[in-house]
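anyone seen this seq b4? input:
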Amino acid sequence: LLPYLEKFHRLYPKIRISVTNGPTPETLGKLEGNIIDFGVVTEPVTSAGGCSVIPVKQIEDIFICGGEYSALASDTLAVKSLADFPLIMLEKNTSTRKYAESFLCQNNINITPEFELATSSLIVQFVKRGLGIGCVVRDFAEKAIEEKSVFQLNLDSVIPKRNICIVKKDTVNSKAAEKLLELLLA
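predicted toks r here
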């Protein structure tokens, strides 16, 4: 999102916009309540209440390890074995957490995370310090994976890819939001 906001700011330096963040369900609620003009959310989008849902980028959820668990990354790990390790997940009210839990449930795996955190960047930091195995969207861990401070686990079953989506009503209330949407959808 930041590259688009930078471009928007260069093109329209005098126009101010407000950016908020939150879990997908919270974002959808703000959209339905006319608090925001549009939302950028991750699938699954369970209820968009008469809004358009436009996929814009495919993402991949992965499990990462670091510290004392880094040796796990050298082999293919049975997805069922994740239940044997301390897991670090996002909070329950996020679409990312729900999506990961759905995948685990389909594989007959029940989990109780050791840590439930508010952001993916915190998950990466906890994993770096060896506090467990984290589940994040790959983009959030990419730099740490390249730096070899965390490692992606190779599982015998992978979480299916999903999308980042723009969710909007048929009519957008502000010209600034319309222009930003044009950039995002170009």
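The chain has six helices and ten strands. The mean pLDDT is 91. kinda curious what u guys think
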